[in-house]
Amino acid sequence: VFSISTQFTILFFPLKLQPFLRNILFNNSAGDTVFFNEKRELEGGFDIINWVTFPNKSFLRVKVGKMDPQAPLGSDFSIDEKIIIWHQSFNQVGPNC
């Protein structure tokens, strides 16, 4: 499961983030391996999950989008900002967004 905020621009990755992304390797919920190949292209897709935490410390995982590198260009990344529930402490966009 991989989570990403809507404020993060997926169209390009800042230079500070590239060393971390180079080493990403995990299995998605379908059992497919997700990683970046030698050309720094994403291999395998994944869902974008919003973890909603409740006052009693329970949580709910809500699928808010997906990344599918095999989909046609323009359909490879989708996110539904309207269904994201932000924690009350996230009240502004980060300085790098």
Summarize the structure.
This protein has 1 helix and 6 strands; from the N terminus they run αββββββ.
Distance between the termini: 22 Å
Structural class: mainly beta
The protein's oligomeric status is single chain
Principal-axes shape call = elongated
How many separate helices? 1
Radius of gyration: 15 Å
> Could you estimate the helical fraction of the residues in percent?
under 10%
Unreliable sequence segments: 1-14
Strand content: 25-35%
Strand arrangement, largest sheet? 1-2-3
The major sheet is characterized as: 3 strands, antiparallel
What order do the helices and strands follow?
Answer: HEEEEEE
Organism: Podarcis lilfordi
Protein name: G_PROTEIN_RECEP_F3_4 domain-containing protein
InterPro entries: GPCR_3_Ca_sens_rcpt-rel, Peripla_BP_I
GO molecular function: G protein-coupled receptor activity
SSE map:
Blueprint: H1 18-22, E1 25-27, E2 33-36, E3 42-43, E4 46-53, E5 59-67, E6 77-79
Antiparallel strand pairs: 1-2, 2-3, 4-5, 5-6
Defining traits:
single chain, 97 residues, mainly beta, three-stranded antiparallel sheet, 1 helix, 6 strands, 5% helix, elongated, disordered N terminus
3D architecture notes:
The chain is mainly beta and 97 residues long. It has one domain (1-97). Helices cover 5% and strands 30% of the residues. The protein is built from 1 helix and 6 strands; from the N terminus they run αββββββ. The protein has one helix spanning 18-22, and strands at 25-27, 33-36, 42-43, 46-53, 59-67, 77-79. The strands form 2 sheets. Strands 1-2-3 form a 3-stranded antiparallel β-sheet, with no helix packed on it. A 3-stranded antiparallel β-sheet has the order 4-5-6, with no helix packed on it. A hairpin with a 5-residue loop joins strand 1 (25-27) and strand 2. It is elongated, with a radius of gyration of 15 Å. The protein starts with 17 loop residues before the first helix and ends in an 18-residue tail after the last strand. 5% of the residues are buried. Mean pLDDT is 71; it is low at 1-14. This is G_PROTEIN_RECEP_F3_4 domain-containing protein. One of its GO terms (cellular component) is plasma membrane. GO terms for molecular function: G protein-coupled receptor activity.
